[in-house]
Amino acid sequence: MACRISALALVVPDYDSAIAFYVGKLGFRLTEDIPQGAKRWVTVEPPGGGPRLLLAKAEGARQTAAIGNQTGGRVFLFLQTDDFARDHAAFTAAGVVFEEAPRHEPYGTVAVWRDPFGNRWDLIGPPPA
Predict the structure, then answer these.
(1) Residue burial 67-98, b: 16+ Cβ < 10 Å; e: rest
(2) What is the pTM of this model?
(3) Which of 40, 88, 111, 123 has the smallest number of CB atoms closer than 10 Å to its CB?
(4) All domains of the chain, ordered by start, with CATH?
């Protein structure tokens, strides 16, 4: 078998505001934006690659209620960087609000942040030397 995770669905309020944030502010690459009638197949990819995010527009009250809370308040996505200080500064300049100061863990330097839709992320850099 040769399977891999290619994308993760991220429920968002609308496609364009999610594209504006991930592509316009964070520098993700818009990999697909395919109309499908009332829906669109929209994927974005971090600059360093990895699984794509499928930006899924919420439909109905249940999905709308899940925006920003797909994991019950836990950190949902983990964005790894080769230069924590550079990307922490770039994200801050782009308006990202971090929930905490960077901290050092055995697996790397990390800080939790939220996207504008309420999803919690870890920005993770290499462990300190």
Answers:
(1) bbebeeeeebbebbbeebeebbeebeeeebee
(2) 0.93
(3) 40
(4) 1-59 (3.10.180.10), 74-129 (3.10.180.10)
- Going by pLDDT thresholds of 50, 70 and 90, the confidence category of residue 129 is confident
Over residues 46-69, the pLDDT tens digits come to 999 999 999 999 999 999 999 999
Phi (first) and psi of residue 100, to 5 degrees: -155, 165
Residue 49's Cβ-side half-sphere holds a number of Cα atoms within 13 Å equal to 0
Hey, which bits of the chain come out as E strands? Answer: 7-12, 29-36, 39-45, 52-57, 77-80, 97-98, 103-105, 108-114, 120-125
